Task: inverse folding
């Protein structure tokens, strides 16, 4: 009986530790993404691009905007050099993790100069560090404005 109680106690402690680790990881990933957005606001190109994996892909709002990390760097460099890139502020973000805890994905709503945008992304853990592997930004259109939007498009 004592062995059963000790086993259940160990299992409960282990489960509790796992839950705490996920909570911390959620916070860590959220902070990384917030700091990444802040680096653009502050035109800190080194911090901005160090958050991206070497094989990262950035998809922008225009259908032609699908960049590798190097291509996106070349596009961004003139904006960052002026001391002001863009200012995205997340106000609603959901983060999810793979079972092994080495992949995270998220979606977020952002206040931007374009109004509210939606973005999603994928991060991977490499050498005990999260890196953004994929980010996609899209402009939101309210359903009641879709007909007008389609006429413009």
Result:
């Amino acid at each position: 009986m004592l062995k059963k109680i000790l086993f259940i106690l160990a299992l409960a402690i282990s489960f509790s530790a796992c839950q705490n680790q996920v909570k911390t990881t959620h916070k860590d990933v959220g902070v990384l993404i917030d700091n990444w957005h802040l680096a653009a606001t502050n035109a800190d190109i080194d911090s901005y691009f160090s958050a991206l994996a070497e094989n990262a892909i950035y998809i922008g709002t225009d259908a032609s905007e699908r960049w590798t990390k190097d291509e996106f760097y070349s596009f961004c460099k003139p904006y960052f050099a002026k001391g002001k890139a863009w200012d995205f502020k997340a106000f609603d973000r959901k983060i999810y993790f793979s079972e092994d805890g080495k992949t995270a994905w998220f979606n977020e709503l952002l206040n931007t100069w374009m109004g509210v945008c939606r973005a999603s992304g994928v991060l991977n853990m490499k050498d005990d560090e999260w890196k953004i592997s994929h980010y996609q930004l899209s402009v939101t259109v309210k359903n009641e404005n879709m007909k007008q939007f389609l006429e413009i498009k």
